[in-house]
Amino acid sequence: MEKYKEVFARLKEQRVVIVEAQGGALSPDFFITALNGYNGQITVTEPQRALVQSVCQNVACQIGCQVGKHVGYQLSGYTRTSDTTRMVFRVDQSVSMFLARRQNGLGSGLLIVDRAYDRSLQLDFLLGQIALNLNQSPQSHIILVSPPRAENVREGEAHLLDLLTYRFPQAPVIRLEHNSSEPSSESCEVLKGEYLWTAAVRKVKELMEEREPATVLLLLATRQDVKKSCKALNGLRNTEVFSYHSKLDSHDQQRIWNATPGKWRIVCSTNALRGVSLPGLLYVIDAQETVRMSEDRFGVRRHLVVSVSEVDVHQAKQSLPSGGRYIGLGTDVGLRAYPEPAIKREPATGVAMQIANRPVVI
């Protein structure tokens, strides 16, 4: 708690503060300290819609209020705020576009960029907007959240902390203490000739034989894997099965937040739910793979299944309570320290079009 208070004490001296947090994500206690220690409106950005709802609900639960009273969120199609809301959670893309359209810089208040390790194009645009407009907005304050410096950074792989300190050289870096209570972790052997999604389904059935009903989250690489897993698990006794991916409409995505007490609740998802704390979540089964867009030297685009990063694995573990259980279907050996920046892996023409379509060219 003292480190949390130090962050807001430094904001009185510096406009920008960089926070080095385990896994690159802030805890609900930090946001509660922000509500108590900062006098003004607070906006928090997250990389995914599900993370916006999950973190907002956790903070509201901690302070004992309903979502939309003191803390709320703004999403396309789902907005829960009121006149008394002081902290609003939003997707970084919407905040980036909002700032790009403003004529008066960043405005006033506190902007917290949580999980800044995700290096999407929209996040890079957002950091650019902040750097360009900071001097025009003397009443604004910024907190940028970075994971700790990794020891096994590959050659040519820049650490996010170095990038942030380069862009904001005057910003102090404050390292938050690591929470020692972590869920148990184990590896699940994938049998010869077995797909990762079938190994995940097999592990779910083993848990159902040994444990009491709880929520299980399957993190799979592709939408096809999600569809096949749901089909294999549907019809099991005392079980509710949900699917989740970015192509679902908003109404279907909302179903994952509703649970029936006393039943197994299995959520099969792509990496869109990585790091999300679902109600009653006790088990995360992680394929440790994701899909990335790639373009070869001939300009041919295709989707590739690649391994996730170490920070991604830690995010999945952080979504669990202290008594939870993380089950990895791959191996942590040889993983990248951080996700590859989108600007390096995405087609150059697509990046150029996104820049050209923005109200302000960064």
Describe this structure in words.
With 362 residues, the chain is of the alpha/beta class. The chain has 2 domains: 2-175, Rossmann fold (3-Layer(aba) Sandwich); 184-331, Rossmann fold (3-Layer(aba) Sandwich). Helix content is 33%, strand content 23%. The protein has 12 helices and 16 strands. An 8-stranded mixed β-sheet has the order 4-3-5-2-6-7-1-8, with helices on both faces. A 6-stranded parallel β-sheet has the order 9-16-13-10-12-11, with helices on both faces. The longest helix has 15 residues, at 49-63. It is globular. The mean pLDDT is 84.
Q: Report, as a whole number of angstroms, the end-to-end distance.
A: 37 Å
Q: Any idea of the CATH topology of the largest domain?
A: Rossmann fold
Outline type? globular
CATH architecture of the largest domain: 3-Layer(aba) Sandwich
Order of the strands making up the biggest sheet: 4-3-5-2-6-7-1-8
Oligomeric nature of the chains: single chain
Largest sheet: 8 strands, mixed
In DSSP terms (H or I, runs of 4 or more residues), the helix count works out at 12
Structural class: alpha/beta
Strand content: 15-25%
Q: List how many beta strands DSSP finds.
A: 16
Measured as a percent range, the helix fraction is 25-40%
